[in-house]
Amino acid sequence: MRFSWLPLALLSLLPLGVAKAATPAPLRIGGSSTVFPVMQAAVQAYQKAGANRQVRFELKETGTSAGFRQFCSGQLFLANASRPISAKELRACAAKGVSFLELPIGFDAITVVVNPKNTWASRITTGELSRLWSQAAAGKVTRWSQVNLDWPDRPIRLCGPGKDSGTFDYFNKAINGNDKNSRSDVFTSENDNDLVACVAGNPDALGYFGYAYFQANSKRLKALSVVGSKGPAYPSPQSVQKESYVPLSRPLFIYVNDQALRSQPELRKFVTYTMQNGLKLVKQAGYIPMPSSTYRLVESKLYLQVLGTAFGGDLPVGLTTGQALQRSLDSIKKSEFR
Q1: Which of 176, 258, 307, 317 is the most exposed place for a label (fewest CB within 10 A)?
Q2: pTM for the whole thing?
Q3: What's the CA dihedral at 221, 168, 211, 194 to 10 degrees?
Q4: Which range marks the domain in which residue 178 is found?
């Protein structure tokens, strides 16, 4: 596994003879590689903002599941997630007395990609994806012609997220009916840049990962149209916002430790800054922003300290993006308006 690190802010030099103040602990952020570009943009913008230049950050991309393990054990106060927290993770947080805020930050379109030299595939159905990626396909479905009879009899190279990835969980729940139902005889990584390289370097490869990584590498990759319950659709801001890119569109989140939020002013300032600038940051990172009015609602959720998850430990596969957001934000409404 390879980690991506954001350089730490340099400390100011002190005059000789002056005692050096204790170095404050950095704000540690970890978890989803999908959400990583958003938080990277947020950290860079925050550090450039005047008085925030001396705030130190440690930013890792380890996968949503690994991030939640650290978050629920109290080792991490801010976790990026490309899926909601699971029932198992909720129990782990409760066992350690970790309460949290769940804040939606934007939308993603899980993108199925091939090499640009692939001349035969332009669309793929959810049934074909399942035929290719399910556990039953391991060692058996190894050629393009086995997925679609119109495709050539060539070997297929698969590149996908590892088991610590929220993208792995969401894709397999949406495509294979179970978040663990996936073949293991494929190249995997929690670092999406490794998956980009895997597909870009092999004309017979196919992979899937977050939309921002396709956007950043669109000259090296070709996205496939996915044929779901609403017909074929390419991943795009428009198809996600119109709710036609199903079932591979999803909300993205940050999770914040409530106790740390109350006791650490810099953490609260950074999270507030991120939500206030969410539309710009998410768009800059290559993902699909929520409506500006929704960011204001998420700010309200932050100010009111609304704790817990709106998803009850389940993956919201099958919900439209609007329904997922509504469920996430419904908890801030007064009971008489629910």
Answers
A1: 307
A2: 0.88
A3: -50
A4: 111-241
